[in-house]
Amino acid sequence: MQQRPQKKIYLILILGLLTAIGPFSIDMYLPAFPDIAKGLHTSIAQVMLSLSSFFIGISAGQLIYGPLLERFGRKKPLYVGLFIYVLASLGCALATSVNALIGLRLLQALGGCVGIVAARAMVRDLFEVTEIAKVFSMLMLVVAVSPIIAPTAGGYITSLLGWRWVFVLLMIIDVLILTGIYFLLPESKKPDPNFSLKPKPILNNFAGIIRHPQFYTYALTAAISAAGLYAYIGGSPSVFMDIFHVSEKQYGWIFALIAMGLIGASQINSVLLKNYTSEQIIKAALACQSIIGLVLAILTIVGWGDLFITIFLIFLFLCCQGFTFPNASALSLAPFGHNAGSASALMGSIQMSIGACASALVSVLQNNTALPMTGVMAFCAMGAFCVFGLGRRIITQKAAAAAVEEEEVEMISTL
């Protein structure tokens, strides 16, 4: 569907804000970890489990919303999910124990993840296939503002008003996004009453998507690569505030500075797509990310990873992520024009499941050094590179086999 330039801008802005609900919910409360631990009489490691529960909620929730977005259209599930998010955010602000916070963060994720699924599906609904990678890069510009604004704002709010007000602000942001959806966002897909919500057809639908070589290759590549980002998000409060002893406000600014790498790379990606294919960009980005991750882990082991070196290498690591994610996401969704909601849900669920495991692994391996974070980051980058290489080989082999089969059929038909 062709969009006028002005219309395209505000569509991308709204879709970007929907996608940013998750990152805002993660990044804004990171500087508050020490205060939350003190306020709820627990440890930072326990508070980190509320981050893991959020990832689990996003992962599971996307599988629920995928079929709902196919059956009821895009906007009705958005209203329901974001209303759940408002109630859960209020509950987080009033939580009196870390276990309650962990549970409420799970519910918050189950509500907020609808924005991620719907935004990706609507990109596939509203834009041409050839535009998708560029649109995802533009979405990342909106999304990437959250790591700049959110932790900085969270640090100041925590120091001035207390950590509970972080969740109050998240609730207000969600209400504003809901208002924008109601007045500005078009319905991109009519409800389909023939789409079954019974478990068996839904599972068969997901199975058909995940068996597609192009989907599982690029969805897993994006997910494993992004898991390095989630390892950084989960481990950075402890690394920077406990090990390097920066303040909450300083942590917010460091987080924002590092996020600039992600923003810059995602925009350079749009320029590179004029001369290079998505596959070429992904291959180069993953190779660089693997080397950077390995260097970061080795420097941590030998004790040469001081504050400034760590910041610089993580900055470069996230630059690579800015090239990998939009291209891999576009390629994984490209074959599914009539099933974009389910494909988007499955891709997001895979990504968040692996991200939750990476974040939880950093928490479990916590040893008062930066190695759990940097080691998991390196492992994820190298794992993504291996999956990409193996997946591309499978896609090439299947394409060659299909071409041979087509030639044989054509020869037989001419006899």
Question: Could you characterize the architecture of this molecule?
Answer:
Belongs to the major facilitator superfamily. Bcr/CmlA family. One of its GO terms (cellular component) is plasma membrane. The chain crosses the membrane at residues 9-32, 44-65, 77-96, 102-123, 135-157, 163-185, 215-233, 253-272, 284-305, 311-333, 345-365, 371-390. One of its GO terms (molecular function) is xenobiotic transmembrane transporter activity. By secondary structure, the chain is an all-alpha fold. It has one domain (7-184, 208-414): Growth Hormone, Chain: A. The protein is 83% helix and 0% strand. It has 16 helices and no strands. It has helices at 5-27, 33-39, 44-72, 75-93, 98-112, 114-126, 132-143, 145-160, 164-184, 199-210, 213-243, 248-272, 278-302, 307-333, 340-364, 371-414. Helix 8 packs antiparallel against helix 12 and helix 11 runs antiparallel to helix 14. The protein starts with a helix and ends with a helix. 53% of the residues are buried. The model has no long low-confidence stretch (mean pLDDT 85).
